[in-house]
Amino acid sequence: MEPIEALDARYARVRDATMALCATLTPEDTVAQSMPDASPAKWHLAHTTWFFEKFVLCRDPGYAPMHADWHYLFNSYYQSAGPMHARPQRGLITRPSLLEVVDFRRHVDACMRERLQAGVDEDTAAIVVIGLHHEQQHQELLLTDIKHLFACNPLLPAYAELPEPPRGRARPQRFLRGREGLVETGAPAHGFAYDNERPRHRELLHPHAIAQRPVSNAEFIEFIRDGGYRTPTLWMSEGWDTVQREGWNRPLYWSEDLDSAFTLGGLRALDPHAPVAHVSYFEADAFARWAGARLPTEAEWEVLAADRDPGQGNLRDRGLLQPCAAPDDADEDAPLQLFGDVWEWTSSPYVSYPGFRPLPGTLGEYNGKFMCGQWVLRGGSCVTPGDHIRASYRNFFYPASRWQFSGIRLGRDA
Amino acid sequence: MEPIEALDARYARVRDATMALCATLTPEDTVAQSMPDASPAKWHLAHTTWFFEKFVLCRDPGYAPMHADWHYLFNSYYQSAGPMHARPQRGLITRPSLLEVVDFRRHVDACMRERLQAGVDEDTAAIVVIGLHHEQQHQELLLTDIKHLFACNPLLPAYAELPEPPRGRARPQRFLRGREGLVETGAPAHGFAYDNERPRHRELLHPHAIAQRPVSNAEFIEFIRDGGYRTPTLWMSEGWDTVQREGWNRPLYWSEDLDSAFTLGGLRALDPHAPVAHVSYFEADAFARWAGARLPTEAEWEVLAADRDPGQGNLRDRGLLQPCAAPDDADEDAPLQLFGDVWEWTSSPYVSYPGFRPLPGTLGEYNGKFMCGQWVLRGGSCVTPGDHIRASYRNFFYPASRWQFSGIRLGRDA
Amino acid sequence: MEPIEALDARYARVRDATMALCATLTPEDTVAQSMPDASPAKWHLAHTTWFFEKFVLCRDPGYAPMHADWHYLFNSYYQSAGPMHARPQRGLITRPSLLEVVDFRRHVDACMRERLQAGVDEDTAAIVVIGLHHEQQHQELLLTDIKHLFACNPLLPAYAELPEPPRGRARPQRFLRGREGLVETGAPAHGFAYDNERPRHRELLHPHAIAQRPVSNAEFIEFIRDGGYRTPTLWMSEGWDTVQREGWNRPLYWSEDLDSAFTLGGLRALDPHAPVAHVSYFEADAFARWAGARLPTEAEWEVLAADRDPGQGNLRDRGLLQPCAAPDDADEDAPLQLFGDVWEWTSSPYVSYPGFRPLPGTLGEYNGKFMCGQWVLRGGSCVTPGDHIRASYRNFFYPASRWQFSGIRLGRDA
Amino acid sequence: MEPIEALDARYARVRDATMALCATLTPEDTVAQSMPDASPAKWHLAHTTWFFEKFVLCRDPGYAPMHADWHYLFNSYYQSAGPMHARPQRGLITRPSLLEVVDFRRHVDACMRERLQAGVDEDTAAIVVIGLHHEQQHQELLLTDIKHLFACNPLLPAYAELPEPPRGRARPQRFLRGREGLVETGAPAHGFAYDNERPRHRELLHPHAIAQRPVSNAEFIEFIRDGGYRTPTLWMSEGWDTVQREGWNRPLYWSEDLDSAFTLGGLRALDPHAPVAHVSYFEADAFARWAGARLPTEAEWEVLAADRDPGQGNLRDRGLLQPCAAPDDADEDAPLQLFGDVWEWTSSPYVSYPGFRPLPGTLGEYNGKFMCGQWVLRGGSCVTPGDHIRASYRNFFYPASRWQFSGIRLGRDA
Lengths: 414, 414, 414, 414
Ligand SMILES: [Fe+3]
Ligand SMILES: [Fe+3]
Ligand SMILES: [Fe+3]
Ligand SMILES: [Fe+3]
Description:
Chains A, B, C, D: Keywords: Iron, Oxidoreductase. Chains A, B, C, D: It holds the Pfam family DinB_2. Chains A, B, C, D: One of its GO terms (biological process) is ergothioneine biosynthetic process. Chains A, B, C, D: InterPro entries: CTDL_fold, DinB-like, DinB/YfiT-like, EgtB, Sulfatase_Mod_Factor_Kinase, SUMF_dom, SUMF_sf. Four copies of one chain form a homotetramer. By secondary structure, chain A is α+β, with helices and mostly antiparallel strands. The first copy, chain A, has two domains: about 5-150, Four Helix Bundle (Hemerythrin (Met), subunit A), CATH 1.20.120; about 175-414, paralog of FGE (formylglycine-generating enzyme) (Alpha-Beta Complex). Helices cover about 30% and strands about 10% of the residues of chain A. Chain A is built from nine helices and eleven strands. Chain A has a four-stranded mixed beta sheet with strand order 9-8-7-10. Chain A starts with a helix and ends with a strand. Chains in contact: A-B, A-D, B-C, C-D. The interface of A and D includes residues 235, 238, 369, 373 and 399 of A. The structure holds fe (iii) ion (FE) (4 copies). One fe (iii) ion (FE) binds near residues 47, 76, 134 and 138 of chain A.
C-alpha cells in the first residue's frame, strides 16, 4: 500500500480532476441521462462521493452522513449496501442541485482529508485507493456519457474547445508474431489491481499474430463500401439482428456521408488515418471476419502489452480526447497504440480467472456479478486517465455497446 | 378584438407570469422530462416564445429569427410549420441553457413590444391573443409537469413554500336539477375562444341533475375502502386493464396509507373535505358507477355554468395551488366550485361541434387533430390562470391521464 | 319474445351455420391466433357454446357442465362469470382438440334442444336469443379472423373457392340531403336489440347531407396517389403517428402496386368500382378531410337507414364474402349499400345513449364496458349474417382497427 | 465416412423416429408456437425435411423441389440459402397442413432413399450425416417445445402416458479430483462431430474437483428455502434482474408448493432424489455460489467424461423422458450421470476453439454465428437420442433459458 502522505495528495488530485472535467458544463448539462447505460454528470459527481462516504467515512461509527437520504439516490448497484434508485430514472433527479452536490463533495473531501492526514489503517487505505480508481473510471464515463448526450442534441454542442489532433499517417498494417505456449497473465499479488485481474495464473497461448496498429477509419470505410453492413454472413446472428433492428450502417457518431464525426470538440472531419472508434463488438468481429482475421484473445493482448509503457499512449492527459494516428518515428517492429486511443475489443468473453476471489464484503459486487454476456476490452482510450491503465486491466461491455471509445485490433492464427 | 394598448400590457403581464412561475426552480429542474406527456419547464419557456417568433414576428419577412435552428427544437406538433424534435426526447435538450432561453424570451419580448406599440393589424392581434392564451395553457402545464417531476424524486422536494389551504367543510352532497330540452352551447362568435368551442350551436338536453359540489377526498376514500379498485364490474374494460397493469389503488400522489398526498408544497396531510384530484377518467367513471350516478355531459355542465362568474373559483391567482373545500357561506342552491379547484371529467368524448371549422393555416393544428380518444374536462383548476377559464372552455385528456388536477362532479338522469 | 317453436328451429339454424363456416378449414387452421384482437376459429366454436352452457343450461342447478374446467378457457371477458384465460394466449390452447370442441357443441346443442322443446320461461328465451345474436357476431369475427390469419401466411391460402363478384359500375357520387331537427333514434322497446341500441331517444340533427354510396377503391386510389398517406395535416394526430409507426400506405390486404388484394377467395384483382374495405377510422377520417367532407354521425346514418330493407344488401347470405359495386338499376335518389358490403365508420365515438341501462347481471358486461375509445360503425358487411343487421345496430372498433370489412361513406354539413 | 448401406438404413431409422415422436399429437398440437424460442412440431417436421431437400437433393440440378415456395417458410436461419420467414411467426403457418407436411416428408424420403441406394459421393454422404444429426437435435427440441406448449395450457395435458421413473436414492454428494495441467479436448479429426467441437486442441486445466452427481431436487429445495431467490448477492447482475422481472422463485414447471412438477407425462410428484431440471444458467450459477462451489468449465467436464460410455445414461431411448436418480450399484468413485438426465450448465461461454473453421458454404452458418452470449452445456438429457451424444458435444443456450432439460453439476477449485 502507498504511504499515507501520497494518498492524501493523490486523493486531492483525483477528486479535483473530476471537478475540472465539469468546467465547461452548464448545470442543465449535468442532469440529463441520454440512455439507461449512461448517467448524468451530476450523478457521477455524487456517486463517486457517496463511495467515499459510504465505504470509508461510515466505517467510523461516529460519522454522521451529511445526507443519509441521498444514499438511496447515489448507490449504483451495491445490493448489500442498501436499496437504490432505478438506474433509468437517474435523469429525473434534479434535486439535489449541482451546487448541493458540489457542497457534498467539499464536505466529504474535507472529512477525507482530515481522516487521511490523521492516518488510516491498511484496510481503509486499500479502500481509498479503490475509491480513487473507481473515481477515475467514472471520469471516463462522464466524458463518454456527455458525448452521447450532446450527440442527441440536434444543435450538436461541443463539450469543449479542443485542439486539432495531429494528423499523422497510419502505417501500412503488419502482423507481429506473438508468444506461444504457457504464459502467465493477470495482475501480480502486490500493487493495485481490480479483483477481476487476479489471480495471476497460467494461460496456454496457441500460435498467433497480432496487428501492429488498430484498424483505421479508412480501412473501416473500405468495409462499409464493400457492403459490410449488408452481408449477413459476416456477422454473429445477434449482431445481424442488431444491425437490422437499429439500422446500423456506420460507426456511432459518423455523419451519413462518412466524411465527418461528432467529437467532444463538436462535428469534425473524419481523419482516415486515425483508429476507428465507437464500434461495437459486433462490428469489430464482423470487420475481422471480412478482413480474413479475428480479434485477439485477452491473453494474447496482455502478453504483447506486458512490457510496454502505458504512459506513451494517447490517453486523457494528452488533452486530445480523440483518437489519432501514431507518430511515425516508432520502432518498426513494435506494437503501436496498445494503450490509449481506443479500447480494443478482444475475442474473450468477460469471465473470471481460475481461482478468482471477489473482494470481501460489499465491494465484492464491484466486478464479479457482471461476468455474463460482456466482452473484454483492453488498453484504455483517449479519455482514460493516464495513470489508470495497465497491461492487466480488463474493461468490459455488452457486444452492442458503441458509446465508449471502442475500436479494433486484428489478430490471427499463425 | 381588444385595443392595441391593452394587448401590449397584457402581453407583458402574461409573459412575466410565466417567468415568475420559475422563480423557485433551479436550472436543473427546468431541463428534465419525467414522462412523454410532460415537458421540461425550459422547453415550455422556449416553446411559448417560439410561438410568438414563428407566428407573429416571422410574418414580417424582414424579421430574422434569433436562432433559426431552435425552431426544430421548440415546435411542438405543428407539422405545417416544419419538422420537429421527437417529444419524448425533450429532456435531453440541455442546450440551449436556461439562461440562453431566458435571453431568447427577452429578445422576442422586446421585438413584440416594439411591434405591438407600433400597432398591429387585426389578424396579427388575433394571433397574439391566441399566443397569450397558449402561454397560459403552458403555465398550467408547467406546474403540473413540475409536480410530476418532483414526485418522481424520492426526496419529494416542494415546488414552493405554499400557504396551508383553508380547511373548510364539504357540504352534504345534493343534486341540482338541470335545464332540459333545446339549449345553446359553445362560445359566441365574438370575443376570444378557441376554435374547438365554436360554433355556438343547439344541443338537446335530456332530463338530468348535477351534483352541487365535486366529490371529496373523504368520499373517494369510501370508494377505495369499499373495494372500488378491486371490483372489475365498476370499470370500463380498458380502465380495468389499466388498474391491473399499473397497480392503481388510489389517486396519483397519495401515500399508501391514504393519509397524505404530495402537493406543490411538498407532502401534506390529505384534507377529507377537499375535492379529490389527480384521478383519471377511468377512476371518475368507476366512482360514478359505484355511487349509482354518472358523469355529466359537457353540455349539461356548460349550461349549468353559463351564468356563473369564473373569477370566484380557487384558481391559480389565489395562490393555493391545491384544491380545497368551498367556503360555507354560499347560496344553498347554487352549484359550487364549478370553476377552479379541479378540472371535472365529463362523459363527453372530445369531438368537434357541428359545423366546426379549424383556424386557417398552421394554427388549424392547434385543436382539431386531437379529437380522438380523449375526454372533455371543464372548469379549470387551482393552477389555471384566473383569466383563462370560461364556461365554454373545453379541456381534454386521455382517459388514463392523472397528472392534471382532474376531479369528479357527479351527474344523473332525472 | 318469439315463440318457443321458432326458437328451437332458429337455434339449430344459427348453430349449424357456425359449423358450416368451418367446412373448409383444417384442424390446424382453427387453432392459430394471428394477433391479440383476433381469436382462433376453434375458440369461437367453443366460446359461443360456453355462452349457452353458462348462461342458459347452468341456470338449472341440476345441470352438470360437460367440462367445468373449460369455462376458464372459453369465458371471453365476463369478469362476473369467473376468471378467464388471457386473451393473447388463445392460440396456445391446442387442447381441447377441434373434435372435442365439436363434441362439446353437440352435447350442448342436444341439451339446449331438449330444454327448448320442453319450453323455457321468458327470461331464458331472452337469453337464448341474445346467445344466437352473439353467435352470429362471432360468425362474422370467425371470417375476419381467418382472413387475417391467412394473410399472415406467405402462401396466401384461400378460405374457400368463392364466386367472382359481379363487376358493376360505381355511380358518380352524389350527396343526399338528410332530415334535420329533432328525430328519434335507437331501437324501440320491443323486439330484439342489444342494450347499447336503447333506449330509443330524441336526437337533434343539424343540416347535413350524406353520400349516396360508399367510397370506391378507385376513389381511394386517388387519395393515395395524391399523397394522402404522406400529408400529416389530413390526419388526426394519433392517426398520423400510426401511419408513421406502422408504415401504412394503403388499405390492409392490398398489394403494393394497388392492383390486387387478398380476399377470402385468395389474391384477386382489385375492383375499382367496389367499396374500399379494410380501412381504419383514421384512414376514413383522413380521406373525408381530403375530400372536403366529413364522416356522418351515427344518428344521421340511422335516420337515413331507418326505413330501408337490410335484406337487400350484400350480406353474408349472398355468398360473395367480398364487397362489390351496387347494381345499376336502383332508384336514382335512394341511398345505396347502406346495409352490407362494408361497415361504415361514423364520426360518433361509441358512448351510451341517454338513459342507457346495461342488461342485468353478467350480461351487463356485454356492451357497456367497451364505451371508451372506440368509434361506431353502421350497416353490416359482406360477412354479416343476413338477419343480423338493422338500422339501429351499433358496431364499434378502435380507430386503428383494419381487419374488419370497414369502409367509408361521406357526409357533410348542408 | 460411414458405408452407403448403413447410411440408407440410418436415414430411415432417424427419420422414422421423428414421426414416431408425433404419434400422440393432434394436428392442432403441431401448429402452435408458445414462445419465439420454441417452434411448432409441424415446423420441425418440415424444416428437417427442407434440410435434406435443400442441401442434398437440390445439389442435383435436375431435382425440382416439391414445393419451392415452402423453402421460405422452413429455412430457419441460413441467410446464404435465401430469405426466411420471421421466427416468431412460425405459429401462424397453419398451411401447409400436417398431412401435407407428412406428404412432403414421404416424398423427400423416397428421393433420398433412391439417391442413397444409388450411391452418393463422400461430400454428399457427409451432408446427409449432418442432416441426420440435425434431425436428432430437432427431435429433442420437438419434445421440449411441446412440453413448453402444454405447460401453457391450463388443462396441463400430458404428451404421452409415460412409465413412472424408478425412484432411486441420490447418493451423498462427493467431489472427485479432476486431471490438471495440459490436456487435449475437442473432437478428433475423424468421425462425425459438429464443426464447433473442433479442432482438437490443448487446454490448460487448473487444479479442480467435480461433483460425482448432479444437484438433486431436494438440494435445490434447500436453496429455495434458504432464500436463494431473494438474495441478490448470490446472482449475476443480469440474473437478478431476470429474477425480479420474471418473478422467478422456483424452477420452470414446478408447482408453487414445490411438491410437483409438470412433465411430459403430465403433472407429477417431484422426486427429491432426481436431478433438478429446467433451471437457467443464472440459477445454476447462483446455486453454485450458495453452495460454496462453482460450475465446472467445459474442458474440466470433457476430460472427466472422455472415457465414459454415453450409452449408459438416462437418454431418450430409455423412454422415461424425465430425469431420475442414478441406480445405487455404481462404482463408488465413478462420476454418475454425466450423460443423460439433464444437460449440465458449465462456466464456459460458448466461443470457438483455437483454430476453429466453420464448415464451408451455407452450413458454415450452422454453429459459428451463435458464439455470442450463450453458455455451454454438456452431456445430453433424458430427451436426447441415445446415439446423439458424446463427450465433446457442445450444446449452448442463453443464460435465461429454462425450457430445456438443463441442470447443475458442481465443480470447485482444488
Ligand atoms: Fe460506480
Ligand atoms: Fe403549445
Ligand atoms: Fe363473445
Ligand atoms: Fe435446424
